[in-house]
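[Automated response] Your request has been received and processed.

Submitted sequence:
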Amino acid sequence: MYYLLYGFLYLVSLLPFWILYRISDFAYFLIYYIIGYRKDIVLFNLTIAFPEKSLEEKKAISKKFYRNFTDNFIETIKLLSISKKEIKKRFTGEFDKVNEYYATGRNVQYHLGHFFNWEFGNLSLSLNSIFPVLLIYMPLKNEAMDKIFYKLRSRFGSKLLAATNYLKEFKPYIRQRFSLIFVGDQNPGITENAYWFNFFGRLTPFVTGPEKSARLNNTITMYAKFTKLKRGYYYVSFHLMTDEVRKLQEGEVTKRMIDFIEDTIREQPEIYLWTHRRWKHQFDPSRYTNYEEKIKQPSP
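Generated structure:
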């Protein structure tokens, strides 16, 4: 199954971008107008994030999102065969700003949200970073697709560490130079162990792993902000969250990341992954013995 699926997707990836985007246009029409894939979830999420916007405004954002959603899928397939030159042209950023930290002898950790196109971002960072890149990923349930994404994400040198087995897989790198990539807006599997913070005014659980990793390794901790310049072209800017993570109150790094993610969403709401159930968990104080500490807002 893996070889059959990989072979088909690889052949599709060889098509030029202009043909792939025509496929994306058709997929957008099919998914948005015919299937209506998760349209209720997208509108629900947008209503929480932008209560001040009219229904027409939210529908306009929704349509732009679905166009980016299908583009993201098609662009990810293209990564199976894309050249180094092409990825460098299509995903640019402030890589020199981060590379300057290499001379300090310390390592770097990146926090980002589900903004398009994060798969482009991983490959571009692998090509532009002095630091060896370690990508924390969530294994897919489908074995064939998991192998394909593993191959795709590691094409240009990134080392992949499964979030489900992070401590064991990270151990060989702990005394080496590295940069770690975490997508920090994942829904936690066990909400009792999560950080609960206001996200667009609603208490929301966030995974604790990225912040705990930063504290464990005493990394320089950055937020990677993605901007879509035009179709197929992206830019990343890096923003220092802290270079003294162990001096901060627990939860502070996560809170700063959330603030950055909110600001990025407000600037370009159409490039955020609205189909996931970001607010599916309800905070229940009766389930916690120390819930006041868990939802305490760290001081700025």
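Summary generated for your ticket: Residues 86-294 form one domain. The CA atoms of residues 28 and 66 lie 6 Å apart.
If you did not submit this request, please reply to this message.
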